[in-house]
Design goal:
Order of helices and strands: EEHEEEHHEEHEEHEH
Largest sheet: 5 strands, mixed
Number of domains: 2
CATH architecture of the largest domain: 2-Layer Sandwich
CATH class of the largest domain: Alpha Beta
CATH topology of the largest domain: Alpha-Beta Plaits
Strand content: 15-25%
Number of strands: 10
Length: 237
């Protein structure tokens, strides 16, 4: 079998592009400076298609596919920003804002929140859905960090960073549907868990769900861009 890389030719938003076999639509789009919005995706972590904001249209299919996990094929024609997709993305964002308690004015991540920024970019001006206003706890038992379940959007970045980058497997998801929450170990308090205190989960959180107590009240955005670097260093070893 030839070791040559198999090249696929496809069209994204009427632009002809090339891709390698096994690449995702999102990978190819970003290589060609085509923006597809995401929240659960983060370079350096595996993709799970949780947020569904990266949905795209494929010619010949009535289904919307998540670009972060859908692989390319020869002759594929992809649309990333149709009116149908814009409506879907705004509705997804509305559901995220309505499901928990996202009060931007009093949030520690106000101004540095990916959910907030995404809402602005997608033209979200109001929420048409009734707010659920669940009564969720805030766990401040950890000496350095706090988890506020009211701000969590279940992107599972923290779970994947802890498992795939740190190798600690402290975080996981408990429950189903709207009752799901992220937990440490067997639902123990964060301060009593087997957490290694590395802080990677905090850095990759896109909202104010996980935050560093020492940074509250300061203009200190999170920095998830270190993950690709850590992966490169690990591969080099």
């Amino acid at each position: 079998m030839s070791d040559a890389v198999e090249v696929k030719t496809l069209i994204i938003d009427e632009q002809e592009v090339s891709a390698r076999r096994g690449q995702t639509i999102l990978d190819v789009a970003r290589e060609n400076d085509i923006n597809i919005p995401t929240l659960c995706h983060l370079e350096g972590l595996s993709d799970v298609g949780a947020c569904r904001l990266c949905l795209v249209e494929i010619k010949g299919s009535n289904k919307l596919l998540p670009a972060c996990v859908a692989t390319v094929f020869e002759g594929m024609e992809v649309s990333t920003n149709t009116e149908r997709l814009q409506k879907h993305r705004r509705m997804i964002l509305e559901m995220l804002f309505a499901e928990r308690n996202h009060i931007c004015a009093v949030c520690v991540s106000n101004g540095h929140c990916e959910l907030q920024t995404m809402g602005q970019e997608q033209g979200l001006t109001h929420i048409r859905l009734p707010y659920r206003n669940p009564s969720l706890n805030v766990d401040a038992s950890h000496e350095r960090f706090t988890v506020d379940h009211n701000r969590c959007i279940l992107c599972t970045r923290c779970v994947r960073a802890c498992a795939e980058i740190e190798g600690a497997h402290v975080w996981d998801v408990m429950g189903r549907g709207i009752n799901s929450i992220v937990i440490t170990d067997l639902h123990e308090e964060w301060g009593s868990s087997t957490c290694t205190r590395c802080g990677k989960c905090v850095q990759v959180c896109p909202t104010g769900a996980l935050f560093d107590k020492s940074k509250v009240g300061t203009d200190h955005p999170k920095n998830p861009d270190f993950l690709p670097y850590l992966n490169l260093m690990r591969e080099a070893q």
